Amino acid sequence: MNVIVCVKQIPDPAQPGELDPSDNTLKREGKLILDESDSYGVEMALQLVDAAGGGEVSIISMAPNDEVSGMRTALAMGAAKGVLVSDPDLAGSDALTTAKVLAAAAKHAGEADLIIAGTESSDGYTGTVPEQMAEVLGLPSITFAKSVAVEGGTLKVNRQTEAGYDEVECPTPAVVSVTAGVVEPRYPSFKGIMAAKSKPVDTVTAADLGVTPVGWAGADQQIVDIAEAPAREAGEIVADDGEAHLKIVEFLEGLKVI
Q1: What is the pLDDT of residue 173?
Q2: Which CATH superfamily is domain 2-219 in?
Q3: Nearest to 135 by CA among 95, 182, 81
Q4: Residue 187 carries which DSSP code?
């Protein structure tokens, strides 16, 4: 069984983020780390391959400056190889362009029974890329998976909902997005970390993959201005003098809540 996992490499969230004044986007310079939300996808893929009794896990990523630090973490966990799309022209790419690039990278990585992604990245939160990838690739898609199993040629998922979960099935190959906490990601061992240094990562550009236009040209948009969110105003304190419930009702009526 072969599984491809989409992993995003992001600036360390423990450090204060900075915006590039030239285009008002998040600076992605220097070392990037594996998005924690994607570590669940890597672990799920590794467990599925183990359960299948053979195969391998490949990872695909899109990052500037040939950055592979976050990918090496996934490789140290047990992934076999990776494809990195690194291209200055990708700056400013929107979710759909990202999905097109990752879909092309998945094809470049080789045939797979399953493509796994996190539900959404920690620095983007669009939550749309996995489904867009599936559409571009012409594959079925299941989202918000809290458990994943593959039996024969069938993907079986418990899909998280507000009321519990739905039991969903579809044929493979397919794209599935997993929620945080679906599994407990393993810590890379020292042996895994050393082995990851020699595992192959094929670095390509958008042009190599035949994806155009990309970046701001593909997004057909720009960020014209940014502003800090206004400070939260102090709330109104209602003293309970025996008639507090009436004041609360009046307040809620003013908000058109009741």
Answers
A1: 97
A2: HUPs (3.40.50.620)
A3: 95
A4: P
Closest CA to 133 of 142, 125, 145, 124: 142
pTM > 0.85: yes or no:
yes
Our CA dihedral for 206, 134, 118, 202, rounded to 10 degrees, sits at -30
Q: Give dist(CA 125, CA 141) in Å, integer.
A: 19
Q: Look up residue 198 and give its amino acid.
A: S
The ranges assigned to domains in the chain are 2-219
Structure-token pair, residue 115: 């493509």
Nearest alpha-carbon partner for 58 in 215, 201, 164:
201
Per-residue model confidence as pLDDT tens digits over 105-159? 999 999 999 999 999 998 888 999 999 999 999 999 999 999 999 998 999 999 9
Q: Report the chain's terminal Cα–Cα distance, integer Å.
A: 55
Neighbouring-strand partners of residue 169: 156
Q: Which two tokens stand for residue 129?
A: 């890329």
* pLDDT tens column, 154-204: 999 999 999 999 999 999 999 999 998 889 999 999 999 999 999 999 999
Q: How far apart are CA 59 and CA 69, in angstroms?
A: 13
How is residue 51 annotated by DSSP?
A: H
